[in-house]
């Protein structure tokens, strides 16, 4: 993951170094000055040829809104039931407004309407489009005043005057017509409002009358106390009846328990009863009679109420009542629903039958029970108990029915009492609506009468303060702007062209540029020197940049302290300064008591003059035999390696100088070459090999295998980065460490 992030960062690096670009532009200040000098006359000529002058003429109007000739304010209670009070205001003319109001600004927006501009163009026969006419006319309002300024601009001062005055007259004419039309429209609207208000008032009165008749309400304030009083009485009655019902239920339960006990003890006695000989009833007959009465009582209790049917009929009755109030059904439909409900309730009242059952119970009570001894006494007791049960059951039914009637009446009154606020609200809304519509009708009638008088007059809300005059001096000129813009455009084009040339020039120019484009460290920077003889040392002087070589040599030796440390110096092409680097670096090491050997390994060149020859100590001497070169040794023309080494005038420095004819580069990777390098590493503490350019041959790639490190020389303003990176990638395949880039021929402006 980290490697992918690193690759992405490497892919998105900038193709140039901004600091170098700025320094390059500074170096080209002469060209920038020339561009500026050319831009000035171009701007002046453009201003004269393309520039225009505009004249402005202004007319002033005073805005005085039409005051309301029929001021009248009255209130409408349109939604009194909701607690909302609305005010109604009506004027015969335009309502008076101050300068800060939007009315004046609305007038401003009406000056440059399309119809006005069309009429202006037609009257003056102006050869301009509507957009051009609109842009030449401006309308403004002075702050905190009612003054309107209509201005017109034109290259012709006379035309500016005509434009301003004509558009003003057109605006005033249309504005006055609009006011007259507005007054007439308001008159028509008032008539329609008056007719509508009259109809609404009649409708509201009719609705109020129906409401009073439907709910039988004359004074709604008296209905609420009446319902409240009856509800209190019913609550007390219901509570009392509820207690009585509970008491009788308990009595009935106790009597039923006593009858059950008596029946269990009297079973044997009943078997011995004989038929009655006298007028009276046997105990069985009396008990059967009582049982029949009890069954009738149960039937009355079972049929006394049918809750489901009663609830259905009551719901239909209530729906019909509400629909009749709202006018959705006829009165006959309402009466039918009411009759069905009341008939059902009447058919389930059994008070007469209950009285009849009580009489039969008394009759049974007075009858004599026929039987013998204990049997008669027991039957008499059982009869009395059962009669008592019947009495209590009848009283319980009566109480329950009374409780049910009271409960229904209580529910009915409670519902009506709950609906009283709604009725009261509707009552207030209807009365308020009638009152508000009456007030509105009276107000509209008054306004309409006075408005008819106003509509017969002419009206205008503007007065001309001053007419537009012919301007003497131009109000605006664009010549300065055109001159500045033209000069700036010329400068921008020239500077952009120069910047493009600088950016597209991808050649290495500085250390930062090299790091950015090559992505390799720069270990030394050597400025450009016009006099090349100052770069090489001799017996009398040192190199101009000797101190920079010392700075380069120290970390190299510290990193590679072993004896026989070998450095390969190469470049992409010839002429980049690798020989100069090799000589000066060898001299610095030699002065540090190092035994240094410099090898010129360019063995394939034919017309090549080695730059190391001037340092041959025996140069020009006839007594010493001429030394052989590396190519001659590798091709076995020289047997002893001692014949290769040449002593130099530089302290501690020996050289193998290229001599003889060119040989094939394959000899560089022969066993003889490997043996030679092993032998030389034993003799010298530092070996510096100057290899051929990487861009032309593979010799340096072969020689790299004999070195401990590679110093890559790159000259500024010479090669494109892709050529250099290709050579570096080839050297990278040798796996010999590249110490970094040695940058040569750097212009002083790029040297930090």
UniProtKB/TrEMBL annotation:
Q: Which residues form a coiled coil?
A: 231-303
Q: Which Pfam families match?
A: AAA_31
Q: Which domain of life is it from?
A: Bacteria
Which controlled-vocabulary keywords does the entry list? Answer: ATP-binding, Coiled coil, Kinase, Membrane, Nucleotide-binding, Transferase, Transmembrane, Transmembrane helix, Tyrosine-protein kinase
- Every AAA domain range: 575-719
Segments spanning the bilayer are 29-50, 481-503
**Record's PANTHER family?**
CAPSULAR EXOPOLYSACCHARIDE FAMILY, TYROSINE-PROTEIN KINASE
Record-given protein name: ATPase involved in chromosome partitioning
- Source organism lineage? Bacteria, Pseudomonadati, Spirochaetota, Spirochaetia, Spirochaetales
